[in-house]
Amino acid sequence: EPEVTQTPSHQVTQMGQEVILRCVPISNHLYFYWYRQILGQKVEFLVSFYNNEISEKSEIFDDQFSVERPDGSNFTLKIRSTKLEDSAMYFCASMGLYVTNYGYTFGSGTRLTVV
Amino acid sequence: AQTVTQSQPEMSVQEAETVTLSCTYDTSENNYYLFWYKQPPSRQMILVIRQEAYKQQNATENRFSVNFQKAAKSFSLKISDSQLGDTAMYFCAFMKHWRNTPLVFGKGTRLSVIA
After folding, report:
1. Looking at residue B59, what DSSP letter applies?
2. What is the DSSP letter of B9?
3. Which of A2, A59, A100, B72 lies most in the core, judged by the most C-beta atoms within 10 Å?
4. A30-44, A101-115, B58-72: lowest mean pLDDT where?
5. Nearest to B34, CA basis, from B61, B64, B70, B1
6. Candidates A42, A50, A91; nearest CB to B106
7. Backbone angles phi, psi at B20, to 5 degrees
8. Closest chain B CA to residue A39
9. A105 contacts on B by Cβ (under 8 Å)
């Protein structure tokens, strides 16, 4: 079964550093997403991406965040200057043309720890 | 804006017994999708079951079934013949019936299956 792949699985970074979280969505999917889950809390939407541009973003997705799809397969989330409160699990997800046909699939997540 | 409420932070069930997890939601949409996701200790998000709001028939997947009450905006998950591997966080989620809309999650229910 096709998978969404995320790397790294765990990243530790110093406060103020830039991090890039990487995702390889399912190849024939069209819609891409990033979600965040602070430990012990619910999963929160960050941003959605379609046709090489952001289609929707939440209030969490401020100027320190950016996304891009540099080569048609990878989908990255960049955090420019990390803060302690950015420590969380970050999930990438992708979806095909129809939820019922191709589903909405999550990757296994990247655990980001800011120290 | 849509909201999803899971009123049971924690539940436990004996192995082989049946348990029901509650979820209510609020929306003005008429067409939408509802999901239950399982998050084991590995923190991966695993789709358990999906329900389309325009379908009156309740979805079932092996030991998992839902009770979808559209008028009451209720979407409960029943797990039959509970197994130790069912121990996890369970999240209820809502999505509008449009191609590129984000999931809105509840806060989750932590289920423990006891031997």
Report:
1. P
2. S
3. A2
4. A101-115
5. B70
6. A42
7. -125, 125
8. B43
9. 47
The encoded tokens of residue B109 equal: 């229910």
Q: How far is B16 from chain A (nearest CA, A)?
A: 28
Parse chain B into domains and list their residue ranges. 3-114
Check whether the bond before A70 is cis (ω within 30° of 0).
Answer: no
Rounded CA-CA distance A32/B8 in Å is: 31
Do you find a cis peptide bond into A8, omega within 30 degrees of 0?
yes
State which CATH number among 3.40.630.30, 2.60.40.10, 2.40.50.140, 3.30.70.20 fits the domain covering B3-114: 2.60.40.10
Confidence of residue A45 (pLDDT cuts 50, 70, 90): very high
How far apart are alpha carbons A7 and A89 in whole angstroms?
A: 12
The alpha carbon dihedral of B95, B40, A109, B109 has a sign of positive
Closest C-alpha among B66, B107, B63 to residue B89: B107
Query: What domains are defined for chain A?
Result: 5-95 (2.60.40.10)
The pLDDT tens digits for A50-87 are 988 999 999 999 999 999 998 878 999 999 999 999 99
Say how far residue B46 (Cα) sits from the centre of its chain: 11
Which residues on adjacent β-strands are paired with residue A32?
A: A49, A94
